[in-house]
């Protein structure tokens, strides 16, 4: 922040409050911050000084004739006010040509622009000169027109279709009132020819369009046209029980309406054909026009985040929903083969990444990649549990939701991490057509981890799980496993926990999958099986599957294994337990030689936001595996 100088014309911001306190000081506050200034006479200094900081006097004029000590005190005070955002310098404002009547009538808009950016009058002048076209649904169009008039836009064009001619009397009444209020008002109504929008809309800088109903063909067409012609496009949408304004789409922005519509979740608690009230339409229109106002006047200059405003049509509760650009719209989905996985790992950092900020960022019940990621009312004994529900990335909008996944762990932190990882892997796996095209593999898995080796190991584990799930017959050895060598602390805890819920459970080995061990747990009337990269993982995953089923009887989607009511018993020599402690890297690398040419690893690119916050995303394709 530069130092104040003689030529500055400082003006106090309107949201600034000065409150004296009883401890020889004052509190200075605005909408963003507060600070305390101390001194036995500081309240009197501010009382005399702040009225002069109205933007019409330079600091030289204010301090002219004052003793040197007083001048130093004035500069000290105004420096604090200026660098903390309580006052601004208006001497550098860009000149404007607005009439005094306009400055007076729209003083609040200009003051807002002054405080957020600078040169408020000039920015408002640019806004008033913007050429805008307004069109759309009968229920929303009058509200949009009224909001534009109130915002201070004097000239714009309303496009009406043949079926909307009944709106003319109401719109003409609005136009008459606008002309009385603003002498520069010049609103026109034109007949819309849908087959010639490219010519009709060519003279305009911005298009504001309202849509009501399930047919979004016009909205898509206008969105594409505005992108092509470099126009700003602002949609207001009511469809399938959902109502939202925005996002504002410009020629330079990556954001698009299609991304927002694909991200927003299907409405479950509201009637799909709720008719919007006039109040709801006015709310949506006001928010939409204000967003467009901020875009045109440069308030949003340099802003990177994207959001839209969602309104509940029944309760009139509104919230801003941030969302990520959708890969299927931006076309940034790819799979790059990894020729040498072991060598690839040597090039990657081995420091674990904290993924919890990523999980929090992508969780939203309205427009998140995760609809929920929480413990909710799940039983937390004997295992901690967390559920995740993922939005379908392939939905054309609004997004449908996949069934909930329940994951478990020895601690709440482990359960939440597991749920987050499985949720991301389920989400990524639905881009398989984009990753592999027409050569979509029959068996493959996606993996994400806190390290690259964990991500690649999880991808292989998920691919094996898919092979195991698709089996039509499950074979189990007839003799229970000898648990005397079950020395692993984690597996022992899971085993003892299961025994508290299910009497006399038993462990059995199953038919291996591509040479990887399979373990089955007989608990009650059901069998719970899982394949693992090693015996320890197979036992742990099978026990977790049995425990989740025992803790939550309604759970039907199991991430760790499968549940079967019957299996085929066969005779086979029982393997010895081998529970050597291994790192993720050792666990991942040890099976590679066994798989030989049956495995191909990929580095996946889908959501750029993921790759910025993870140790990459991986895919594994298993070839030469027959469906059994």
Radius of gyration, in angstroms, nearest whole number? 32 Å
User: Which structural class do the helices and strands define?
Assistant: alpha+beta
Instruction: Tally the beta strands.
Output: 26
What helical percentage do the residues reach? 25-40%
Kindly estimate the percentage of residues that lie in beta strands according to DSSP.
15-25%
State the strand order across the main sheet: 8-7-6-9-10-11-12-13
Please indicate the count of domains.
3
What is the tally of helical segments? 23
Please outline what is shown here.
With 628 residues, this protein is of the alpha+beta class.
Care to describe what's here?
With 628 residues, the chain is an alpha+beta fold. The protein folds into 3 domains: 10-89, Alpha-Beta Complex (Outer Surface Protein A, domain 3), CATH 3.90.930; 130-323, Rossmann fold (3-Layer(aba) Sandwich), CATH 3.40.50.720; 342-628, no CATH class. It has an 8-stranded mixed beta sheet. The model has no long low-confidence stretch (mean pLDDT 84).
Give me the secondary-structure topology.
Blueprint: E1 10-12, E2 17-21, E3 25-29, E4 34-38, H1 42-49, H2 59-63, H3 68-83, E5 87-89, H4 100-105, H5 107-116, H6 120-128, E6 132-136, H7 141-151, E7 155-160, H8 168-181, E8 186-191, H9 197-200, E9 206-212, H10 217-229, E10 232-239, E11 242-245, H11 257-263, H12 278-296, E12 307-311, E13 318-322, H13 327-330, E14 334-338, H14 341-346, H15 356-361, E15 370-374, E16 384-390, E17 405-409, H16 412-429, H17 432-436, E18 444-447, H18 452-469, E19 475-477, H19 489-501, E20 506-509, E21 518-523, E22 526-531, H20 535-551, E23 562-564, E24 568-570, H21 584-589, H22 592-595, E25 599-605, H23 608-613, E26 617-622
Parallel strand pairs: 6-7, 6-9, 7-8, 9-10, 19-24
Antiparallel strand pairs: 1-5, 2-3, 3-4, 10-11, 11-12, 12-13, 14-25, 15-16, 16-17, 18-26, 20-21, 21-22, 22-23, 25-26
């Amino acid at each position: 922040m530069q130092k104040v100088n003689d030529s500055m014309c400082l003006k106090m911001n309107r949201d600034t409050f000065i409150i004296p306190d009883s401890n020889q000081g004052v509190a200075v506050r605005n909408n963003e911050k507060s600070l305390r200034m101390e001194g036995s006479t500081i309240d009197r200094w501010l009382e005399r000084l702040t009225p002069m900081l109205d933007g019409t006097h330079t600091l030289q004029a204010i301090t002219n004739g004052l003793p040197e000590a007083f001048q130093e005190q004035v500069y000290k005070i105004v420096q604090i006010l200026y660098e903390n955002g309580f006052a601004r310098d208006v001497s550098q404002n860009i000149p404007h040509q607005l009439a005094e009547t306009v400055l007076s009538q729209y003083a609040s808009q200009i003051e807002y622009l002054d405080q957020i950016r600078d040169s408020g009058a000039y920015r408002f002048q640019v806004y008033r000169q913007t050429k805008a076209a307004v069109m759309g649904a009968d229920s929303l169009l009058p509200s949009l027109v009224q909001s534009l008039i109130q915002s201070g836009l004097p000239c714009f064009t309303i496009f009406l279709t043949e079926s909307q001619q009944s709106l003319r009397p109401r719109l003409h009444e609005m136009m008459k009132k606008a002309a009385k209020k603003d002498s520069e008002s010049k609103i026109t109504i034109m007949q819309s020819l849908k087959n010639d929008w490219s010519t009709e809309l060519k003279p305009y800088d911005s298009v504001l369009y309202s849509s009501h109903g399930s047919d979004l063909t016009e909205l898509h067409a206008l969105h594409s046209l505005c992108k092509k012609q470099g126009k700003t496009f602002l949609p207001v949408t009511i469809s399938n029980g959902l109502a939202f304004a925005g996002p504002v789409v410009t020629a330079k922005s990556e954001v698009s309406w299609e991304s927002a519509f694909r991200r927003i979740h299907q409405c479950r608690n509201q009637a799909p054909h709720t008719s919007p009230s006039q109040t709801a339409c006015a709310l949506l229109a006001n928010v939409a026009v204000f967003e467009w106002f901020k875009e045109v006047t440069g308030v949003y200059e340099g802003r990177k985040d994207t959001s839209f405003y969602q309104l509940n049509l029944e309760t009139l509760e509104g919230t801003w929903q941030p969302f990520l650009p959708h890969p299927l719209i931006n076309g940034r989905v790819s799979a790059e083969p990894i020729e040498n996985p072991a060598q690839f790992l040597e090039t990657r950092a081995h420091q674990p990444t904290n993924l919890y900020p990523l999980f929090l960022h992508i969780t939203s019940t309205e427009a998140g990649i995760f609809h929920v990621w929480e413990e909710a009312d799940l039983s937390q004994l004997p295992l901690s549990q967390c559920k995740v529900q993922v939005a379908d990335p392939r939905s054309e909008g609004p997004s449908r939701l996949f069934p909930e996944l329940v994951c478990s762990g020895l601690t709440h932190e482990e359960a939440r991490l597991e749920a987050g990882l499985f949720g991301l892997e389920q989400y990524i796996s639905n881009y398989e057509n984009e990753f592999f095209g027409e050569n979509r593999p029959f068996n493959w898995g996606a993996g994400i981890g806190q390290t690259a080796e964990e991500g690649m190991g999880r991808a292989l584990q998920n691919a094996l799980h898919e092979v195991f799930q698709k089996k039509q017959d499950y074979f189990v050895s007839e003799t229970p496993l000898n648990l005397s060598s079950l020395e692993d602390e984690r597996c022992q805890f899971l085993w003892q926990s299961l025994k508290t819920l299910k009497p006399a459970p038993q462990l059995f080995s199953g038919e291996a999958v591509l040479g990887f061990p399979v373990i089955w747990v007989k608990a009650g009337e059901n069998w719970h099986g899982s394949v693992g990269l090693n015996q320890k993982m197979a036992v742990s995953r099978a026990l977790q599957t049995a425990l989740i089923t025992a803790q939550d009887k309604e759970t039907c989607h199991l991430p760790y294994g499968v549940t079967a009511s019957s299996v085929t018993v066969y005779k086979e020599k029982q393997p010895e337990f081998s529970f050597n402690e291994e790192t993720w890297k050792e666990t991942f690398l040890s099976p590679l030689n066994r798989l030989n040419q049956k495995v191909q690893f990929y580095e996946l690119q889908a959501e750029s936001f993921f790759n910025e916050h993870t140790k990459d995303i991986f895919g594994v394709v298993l070839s030469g595996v027959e469906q059994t």
